[in-house]
Amino acid sequence: MPFLKPVIEVVNLGRISYGEGLQAQRRFIRRHLNALSQCSTAGSPLNALLLCEHQPVYTIGIRTARYPIEEEERLKQLGAEFYRADRGGLITFHGPGQLVCYPILNLAHFRKSVRWYVGELERTVIQLCHRFGINGETSPDTGVWVRDEKICAIGIHCGRYITSHGLALNCNTDLHWFSHITPCGIEGKGVTSLSQTLKREVTVSEAMEPFLETFAEQFNCLLRR
Fold this sequence. Notes:
225 residues, eight-stranded mixed sheet, 5 helices, 11 strands, 28% strand, lipoyl(octanoyl) transferase activity, EC 2.3.1.181, mitochondrion, acyltransferase
């Protein structure tokens, strides 16, 4: 019997608020959990890739047990929202010009390893960078880097092997937003984008199709549009 590749539904949410992104993730997580409780995988694909851009928002992860309320208020005064999320990682920024991908996957359909999963996300973005002629690399710090500048942040949550949150690839993001924080809590390193690295405008729309192609190759899956 031939091996059947997992099928992943691609859902383009457009430009939305971070709160709307959280709600969308919860809906697709619930779909997985309902199937698990009924011991059923029949019907439409349960795995999904949620793609979006966010309105300006700063978020912190579960590693930040306490974040000063005065710092939260300072960031809000810049015109951004602020959220405390249940993902891994420290503080980061999401906004227009950034391709955000939330894979809502059951790792039982792939490989039951969070370490493997994060590595596959990194390798997906590295292959995407190569398609644009950029040498993307990993480092001891999670994410994808171009020398000492992060081009893609990764922060995930995984419960019962169901993944949520994901990655944020800077395409033509206004990088000035990052100057108000220490991105991901990493001192002495910067942030870059496809546009800044290539010295030309690279939009989210331009990056989306090659991203989906590299994701399908790296995860050995079929994408349903």
